[in-house]
Specification:
The chain has 417 residues and is of the alpha/beta class. It has helices at residues 43-49, 84-91, 96-101, 106-115, 118-134, 150-166, 191-209, 227-239, 256-262, 291-296, 305-310, 331-342, 346-352, 355-360, 387-390; strands at residues 2-13, 24-33, 36-42, 54-60, 65-68, 70-72, 137-143, 170-178, 215-220, 245-248, 267-270, 286-289, 315-317, 377-380, 399-402, 405-408. Strands 1, 2, 3, 4, 5, 14, 15 and 16 form an eight-stranded mixed sheet that branches. The chain has an eight-stranded parallel sheet with strand order 6-7-8-9-10-11-12-13. Strand 10 (245-248), helix 9 and strand 11 (267-270) form a beta-alpha-beta unit. Helix 5 (118-134) packs across helix 6 (150-166), helix 7 runs parallel beside helix 8 (227-239) and helix 12 packs across helix 13 (346-352). The longest helix has 19 residues, at 191-209. 54% of the residues are buried.
Length: 417
């Protein structure tokens, strides 16, 4: 038998489900065969039980740290144009809601995104993905939602698929048609309901038929859609066996997270206004914290972190990378913000960007350094994994393995990459 890689003499933050905290293993090794982790354990165990196994490539980690590949489980990475002007408006005192009402916000990005060809949208989006990959992100969720018509939503999802074809990354796609009401529906007597009906009868069936979405999302908010309207989308998604997610309780408490959990949502995201008493109703749903949006909007209402802890609700951390409220292409920065602004520990933040982020995307084989899991692995030149949330722009991985192949990192050239 021959293994492809052995990363030896390392310390590992496994985040394995059957461990506490970081799941640390010291003076350990990780072996890779194909795209799978085939050994995780002490160096002594490797030497004793695997002496008959040939290894094509070895790396002496010399005490460096291994973590799972980072997972950004909530992004709006594919979009046209930018909203730097609105950034200036907000700093002059305008609110998110007022900017949206005068044609800014999401609808501004819709105009830019509709105007671009598939190729131009790809060219504008690719650099944002590259920034994430440099930090060790190996899995990214990308939402649509800046098209708001069938043609452009499909274009966005196709661009996301193209990015996966050309970059070393796993991409999960999410259909977010229920993001805002498009201009062409504003003349209806009930614009929001008319558009929701269109999503369920026209857009979602077309996207499902082309197998472009791994999940369906909604924006449950006063400037978005009501909990009842979102429920209509959930029911339609169930017809196509698509899991659901929800932007919920970002600006107010509409009980959107509770309603989504009733439909077995894999995640509820933002949740700053989630009532602590409602946390117990989330059951197996992951709470995705988006501190970059909290920071950029200068919000003051914190998610119910202590209630989430007491309920053992998994807390993921993501960038929410988008053109308006979170123009942040750095998951490590989002981890730092989650600690400083929201009170997470560095261990919670890193677990939220690995193990729980995988759970938020319903991925069973990522986010842990564990035998049988995907070989998405990072090697870091740090003294302790808490450093990854501690500093801003301090670290980049020494080596990045995605799907078992060395794909980058500051020291990758030493090993033939």
């Amino acid at each position: 038998m021959e293994y492809d890689w052995l990363i030896e003499n390392v310390n590992i933050a496994t985040f394995a489900a059957d461990t506490d905290g970081y799941g640390i293993q010291e003076k350990a090794a990780v072996a890779i065969q194909g795209n799978e982790i085939v050994f995780v354990g002490p160096m002594d165990a490797w030497s004793k039980d695997h002496s008959n196994i040939e290894v094509r490539r070895k790396i002496d980690g010399a005490g460096k740290w291994v973590t799972p590949g980072l997972i950004d489980c909530h992004t709006h990475l594919v979009f046209g144009g930018n909203r730097a002007e609105e950034f200036e408006w907000r700093l002059q005192g305008e609110s998110y809601e007022s900017i949206a009402k005068k044609g800014g916000g999401i609808l501004s990005s819709v105009r830019h995104t509709r105007a671009l060809s598939l190729e131009d949208l790809y060219r504008q989006s690719a650099p944002r993905l590259e920034r994430l990959l440099e930090e060790g992100v190996t899995t990214v969720e990308i939402k649509s939602g800046y098209g708001l018509d069938t043609e452009t939503e499909i274009k966005m999802l196709r661009v996301a698929k193209m990015l996966e074809e050309h970059y070393p990354v796993t991409i999960k796609t999410t259909f977010l048609g229920a993001h805002a009401v498009p201009p062409e529906f504003q003349h209806f007597d009930h614009p929001k309901q008319a558009y929701i009906n269109h999503i369920c009868s026209e857009m979602l069936p077309a996207i499902a038929a082309q197998k472009l979405a791994d999940a369906v999302d909604v924006f449950c908010e006063g400037i978005g859609f009501s909990a009842d309207q979102c429920e209509q989308v959930y029911q339609a998604a169930q017809q196509y066996n698509l899991p659901i997610k929800a932007h919920a309780e970002q600006l107010s408490d509409l009980k959107g997270a509770v309603r989504a959990a009733q439909y077995q949502a894999i995640s509820v995201d933002h949740i700053e206004y989630l009532n602590a008493e409602d946390v117990s109703q989330l059951r197996s749903t992951v709470a995705v914290l988006l501190p970059a949006a909290f920071y950029c909007l200068k919000e003051t209402q914190l998610p119910p972190i202590e209630a989430l802890r007491k309920n053992n609700t998994p807390m993921a951390v993501a960038t929410d990378l988008n053109p308006g409220t979170a123009p942040v292409a750095s998951l490590l920065t989002a981890m730092n913000q989650a600690c400083i602004l929201m009170g997470l520990t560095p261990q919670e933040a890193l677990k939220g960007a690995t193990h729980f982020a995988a759970q938020a995307l319903d991925i069973k084989t990522k986010g842990q350094i564990k035998t049988g899991f995907d070989a998405d692995i990072l090697l870091w030149n740090i003294q302790h994994p808490a450093e990854l949330a501690y500093g801003v722009n301090f670290h980049r991985p020494a080596c990045i393995w995605q799907a078992g192949k060395l794909k980058g990192g500051k020291e990758a050239s030493r090993y033939g990459f």
